[in-house]
Amino acid sequence: MLTLLAQASPTPVSRTAMTYHIWGDDPPETDALKSHIYSLRQALDKPFDTPMLTTITNLGYQLAAENE
């Protein structure tokens, strides 16, 4: 997930694209993506004043450098 977000940065990655990147044609029926995003946020955002991983409404998730 982090690699996909970093390669796309600062362009948002859609939930659909992220789900396919992780699980391919066999996505889970649960909110597993939300759980993984939550865990990634806990690791990434902890040392920073502003979040590096943001949710872009109706688009997906965006990874941005602190100075952007």
Basic shape? globular
Q: Please tell me the overall pLDDT.
A: 89
CATH architecture: Orthogonal Bundle
Number of strands: 2
Please indicate the percent range of residues in DSSP E strands (runs of 2 or more). 5-15%
Domain OmpR/PhoB-type: 1-65
Organism: Microbulbifer okhotskensis
GO molecular function: DNA binding
Pfam families: Trans_reg_C
Give a summary of the structure in a few sentences.
The protein is an alpha+beta fold and 68 residues long. It has three helices and two strands; from the N terminus they run H-H-H-E-E.
Question: How are the elements arranged and paired?
Answer:
Blueprint: H1 2-8, H2 15-23, H3 32-45, E1 53-56, E2 60-63
Antiparallel strand pairs: 1-2
Provide structural commentary.
There is one protein chain. The protein is of the alpha+beta class. It has a single domain, classed as Winged helix-like DNA-binding domain superfamily/Winged helix DNA-binding domain (Arc Repressor Mutant, subunit A). The protein has helices at 2-8, 15-23, 32-45; strands at residues 53-56, 60-63. The two termini are 21 Å apart. The mean pLDDT is 89.
